[in-house]
Amino acid sequence: MSLKTKILLLALVPLVLVTTSITLISAQQVKSLSETEIAIFEHNLRESKRTELQHYVSLALSSISPILHRTDLDDASAKKEVKAVLDAITYGSDGYFFVYDQYGVNLVHPAQPELVGRNLLDMQDTRSNYVIRGLLDLAKQGGGFHSYIWNKPSNGQESEKISYVIELPRWNWMLGTGLYIDDIAVEVAKIRQEVKRNIRNTFFTVLAITTMTVGLIVVFVILFNVHEHRLADSRLKELVYKTVLLQESERRRLSRELHDGINQLLVSAKFRMELAADKLGDSNPKVQSNLAKASMVMNDAIQEIWRISHDLRPSALDDLGLIPAMTMVLDEFQERTGIRVIQNTPSCRVRLPEEIETTLYRITQEALTNIERHSSAREVKVGTGWDGNTFHLYLADDGVGFNVRAILGGGGIGLRNMRERIEFLSGIFILDSAPRQGTLVRAEFPMHSWQPLLTENAGS
Predict the structure, then answer these.
(1) In this structure, which topology does domain 316-459 adopt according to CATH?
(2) Could you tell me if 107 and 100 are in contact, meaning their C-beta atoms sit under 8 angstroms apart?
(3) Using one digit for the tens of pLDDT, what is the confidence trace for 32-45?
(4) Is the Cβ–Cβ distance between 212 and 206 less than 8 Å?
(5) Over pLDDT 90: what percentage of the chain?
């Protein structure tokens, strides 16, 4: 794992852990708070139901109070009228009043008239709760609320019900009414479901934001790394190019030192040897023979120094330009290797910038070296020229060729150096080859950015 990957993980892992922890804690707190709010909401609904039941019972008492206070009615008639009044009062779809005597016998039940006259004292609901007993006990204690399960008239299903009962002291009757509270359960379930949905949506929202943040960080790091790599690559290329320029400058200096310094001394020494040999004449054949051999060795040394000086930096490149220097290299290559050179290099209309001339000259040398060592070619075509405002150079051989991708991927340092030197000067490097199909090396230099130098060279 690279150092950059470790740094990225050190930045992302704490972010993800902290975000996840905060999200989970917040979700738990929201859930706890929502349960408290739901409990309060449910309690308030139940309280409103109880208040509503008390109001209904008060209205029922107001309806039967005149009958209870009439003195002209006997008990039987009064009971009959009270039953009739309560039996006629209903509200909503499931609201009614019920009456039981002190023994648990039903006296009034508009919703289930079949229960009238039956003793329900021992009736239990699905929770094993003695419903009527509980209601009677509350009535005797002055009234109260009681929850139980009872059949709901509107749908015929058993539902939870809360009732409020009081006692009618005149006959020890229990009067009450009730409201079904299954709607409270429905409302609470809806709210709880909505809370769960909100918590889930919040979680996914945080997850999406976290994912986007992580993605943006990763993209930023990648872009930053790409930028840094490009910057480093650019600086490396610039350093390499400055190194090449420094090498060329040093080559030029060494070439001139060899040519104008050491070579001239050797020529002077050879001249003096020849002068000494002339003065001796035939008086000393042995000395004459040694001087002749020394003169030959000196001549070989002069030629070797000239060759080294020329390889380091041909004076023709500085004095005459690219084409004459290339011509000398191509002639020497053809003479040394026996490979036929077809040259199409017309004279340049202007001197190219020094950096480009040097680069093209070195590319020519490198390409010819590769052809000599690896191509088994019989013929090489070399050409230069202008395409509009673009100067180009190409070298094409009829040799064995090679797989370009394999060579550049595995080694090919010379070829990569060619490309980097050309591209650093805003040129275009083209390499085309295939097994048994020869090789083409082409360099193109658009001269738009070099126009001031071209104008200056043309003027000079």
Answers:
(1) Heat Shock Protein 90 (3.30.565)
(2) yes
(3) 887 888 888 888 88
(4) no
(5) 32
Specify burial of residue 23 (Cβ count, 10 A radius: 0-12, 13-18, 19+). middle
* 316-459 matches 10-180 in CATH topology: no
Residues 6+ apart with CB under 8 A from 298: 266, 269, 270, 273
Question: How many other β-carbons are positioned within 10 Å of the β-carbon of residue 157?
Answer: 9
Helix (H), strand (E) at residue 337: helix 322-337
Name the packing angle between helices 3-68 and 75-88 (round to 10°).
Answer: 150
CB atoms under 10 Å from CB of 213, counted, come to 14
> Tokens standing for 456?
């200056």
Q: Are 383 and 393 in contact (CB under 8 A)?
A: yes
**Fold of the domain spanning 10-180:** Beta-Lactamase (3.30.450)
Euclidean distance between CA atoms 460 and 458, whole angstroms: 5
pLDDT band at 389 (very low <50, low <70, confident <90, very high): confident
Q: How many residues does the chain have?
A: 460
Residue 393: strand pairing partners: 384, 443
The whole-model pTM stands at 0.47
How many whole angstroms separate alpha carbon 390 and alpha carbon 41? 84
C-alpha 103, offset from chain centre? 80
